[in-house]
Amino acid sequence: MGTNLQLKQFDATRAASAESEVIRVEDAHKYYELGETRVHALRGVSIEICRGEFVAIMGASGSGKSTFMNILGCLDRLTSGRYLMEGIDVSKHGKNALALIRSEKLGFVFQGFNLLARTTALENTELPALYAKIDKRERRKRATDALAMVGLAERAQHFPSQMSGGQQQRVAIARALVNRPSILLADEPTGNLDSRTSVEIMEIFQNLNDKGLTIVLVTHEHDIAQFAKRVLVFRDGKIRKDDPVVNRPRANDVLKALPTLED
Ligand SMILES: Nc1ncnc2c1ncn2[C@@H]1O[C@H](COP(=O)(O)OP(=O)(O)OP(=O)(O)O)[C@@H](O)[C@H]1O
Ligand SMILES: [Mg+2]
To answer: Can you give the pTM of this predicted structure?
Structure first.
């Protein structure tokens, strides 16, 4: 009887953790074929990431960070191994199914902001919702909300050339949020930004994560990684370290101590 109850409790715990698991990668290998040569970019990566986590990925250039992000983002496929997103094995999905998952479940932010130049902040933000065939009114509403979330409600009608780098990156974040993704993937989102602006971007990420959004972010900067809750270090296509961040700073507090342009 006692054993039975324990077993039941164990099952319940396991079910709960499976439910909260957004990403599960099992023994992932990725080879790139380049003419005669083969690059072994991922060499047996296994990891689980749960809902509400905020993970930073670090590691030397060429260690496989972007390759891994492209897999997580369903932009590329594994050579071997499995990738389950929200319990669904997407490693066997074809191109169309992957495109649908990208549109519905994933938000992307890159180092270059990739905004359309002749298009306003609002229209840039709307784009993924347009592709997802969401009707015009709902699209507008969602884009307006997303811009407000990144503190750019007042800049909706500005063109990229009329905004600072930090503001452009915030538009890119709003655009990534407009389809209400389960996971936000960011590959060096602060790579082109000065240090204060970088911390401002991390403040937005921390706020979004507080609201439950799962975030995976690649960065070369140790100080930026510390704003996450967990840090992975890649080396030679493998995860060499996986540690929780202790005494995680709040970007909001760090900003108070940083000089502003006016100082
Ligand atoms: N499309 C590709 N074709 C062939 N080889 C590739 C391709 N993309 C990446 N590689 C190789 O795979 C390895 C991992 O590259 P990846 O871009 O994942 O590194 P990274 O950790 O993101 O580096 P960085 O910090 O410079 O962005 C490298 O050896 C790289 O040269
Ligand atoms: Mg990279």
So the answer is: 0.91
